[in-house]
Amino acid sequence: MKQSEYFVPTLRETPADAQIPSHQLMLRSGMVRQLASGIFSFLPLGFRVLNKVINIIREEMNKIGGQEFLLPALNPIEIWEQTGRVESMGDVMFHIKNRDGLVLAPTHEEIITYHAKQHVKSYRDMPQIWYQIQTKFRNEPRPKSGVLRGRQFIMKDAYSMDTSWEGLDVSYNKHAEAYKAIFNRAGIKFFVVGASSGAMGGRQSQEFMVESDSGEDTCAISDSGYAANIEVAQSAISAVGRISDDLPLELFPTPTAKTIDDLVQQYGFSEERCAKSVVYIADGQPILLFMRGNDELNETKLQSILGTSNLRPALAHELIQYTGADHGSIGPINLKSNIRIIADNLLKDANGLISGANKDGYHYKNIDFTRDCSIPEYQDLRTVKAGEPDIVDGSPIRVVKAIELGHIFKLGTKYSEALGASFLDSESNEHPIIMGSYGIGVERVMACFIEQHCDTAGIIWENSLTPFHIHILGLNESKFPDVKNFAESLYSELIIAGYEVLYDDRNESPGIKFNDADLIGIPVQVIIGNKNLTQGYVEIKNRKTGDRKIIKTDEIMEEIKNLYSSIQ
RNA sequence: CGGGGUGUAGCGCAGUCCGGUUAGCGCACCUGCUUUGGGAGCAGGGGGCCGGGGGUUCGAAUCCCUCCACCCCGACCA
Fold first, then answer.
1. What are the pLDDT digits (tens) for A462-518?
2. Alpha-carbon gap, residue A501 to A315, rounded angstroms
3. Please, what CATH class does the domain formed by A468-567 belong to?
4. Which of A231, A297, A496, A503 has the highest Cβ tally under 10 A?
5. What is the architecture, at CATH level 2, of domain A250-379?
6. Which ipTM value was assigned to this complex?
7. Strand B closer than 7 Å to the CB of A199?
């Protein structure tokens, strides 16, 4: 491709709206333009990269037996009503205004299941892996970080259909392997975490994550290889346990202590002996939760314990209604009403605890959970913190932010049951199809690569995703016809040799060409200038290392090949 | 949805408090000449409903009301 004829509007200055490196560089290198919040146009250079990502994904999906579909983005709402997701998705789903009954699909479990119901009727028809690479629409409340979180984005979504849970395990593991292959080929450093199955229903789920301050997910990882989304992460921190002193329960006034910190500061209690009380309302029912004083409630864990995502902290009047006290004085003893109580595992059967007296301005101390009150249920409610020992070998946990690149998910039968997609087994018994669902954010792969591979000058592509393999810079061609002639013949020769070549034949000053080349970041630059050429030399530059090499013109093809293949 | 910020030429910005020539600067763009190995120089030139609407005023980019868009933090995120 001759750059003089190619639409690559590079920007010298960073657009003010872009905050993170990948967004800034995708704009500056002329790969994308924003059309509206969370909506991007891909320009030719960016689309080339996107297609490289897509091709890698397609090849790896085909390798595990995936069959590529193209499903419509415009969907009849009835199908979504049957699975209850019109309601559960709420505002995230776009609804068509001037044609009742149509929505824009945010994902495709329903549509896949619809087609499966039509034609997958026998155990002999399975297993199946169906996938597509297609545009999704989600009305994100707050798009951000360039293409990382958009209202319209390309997703590779795949769905497996099996006759048994063992079969689902096989399909799931195939996807896990395919995903590793995809992200490795793309050149992205990633890690895999155990994740919450959330409101999707289903059993097991893992997310493929890229560590990044721009990420919206938080993960707990450690050197032992432990890695989990913070929503489900556990640690091996030891329980509060029992102390030998067996003092009697004691009510004491705490007129100015509203928080655990107040108790610690004013009375010198140890933080971990304070039992923090939290009241939540889940599906309209109050729940009283006890946490170790310095711990934070993990709402996702609470959701899975309670089996509902409809929960919220109680309001002030509800606290008084159910416990008899305001926040800051709530505890396990003398509760005003008989409400469900769950305590965190770390408090199991503990004594010597301090907690509210359900009477404003009073606390109890020396509380013994086995003596003074009844705690019917202990669960893991807390959010792990950095530095705690992990559950593999006690290695300290690091808490990092991460971008979710992909998610694999054992769906089970939620959608097949809702939509009636069932099959007959060899004994003519009817069963719902057992499904899995597997997504990859295509633009995110591109953006994450750039986040991990850039410097102050621009992007540093590797061979797998680079928009072109070789960048020829012809310097001052209008003045030196020999430069132009050599550049053009090299350009043709490289193309014949099978390379994808971008040839900067623009009538621009050398400085502009150098800077644009570093910004665009094609791994191999071939710089053809008159001074070198008249001596029989040209220069090649490794974009990543910045190394330059002066090479005899008759050895240029060989040297390019060496440099190109050394880059990977 | 709550909080904060910004809308002035393709991009980056000044001007707005405190109303008053013809709205400015850098880059980019066009023409000519000179240049040419890390974003060249000189000369000339084009490009603006100052986000939209309404108001106040002799007069509004500037003051008031209102709507919109975009960015950031939070809430949310199958």
1. 999 999 999 999 999 999 999 999 999 999 999 999 999 999 999 999 999 999 999
2. 64
3. alpha beta
4. A503
5. Alpha-Beta Complex (3.90)
6. 0.94
7. yes
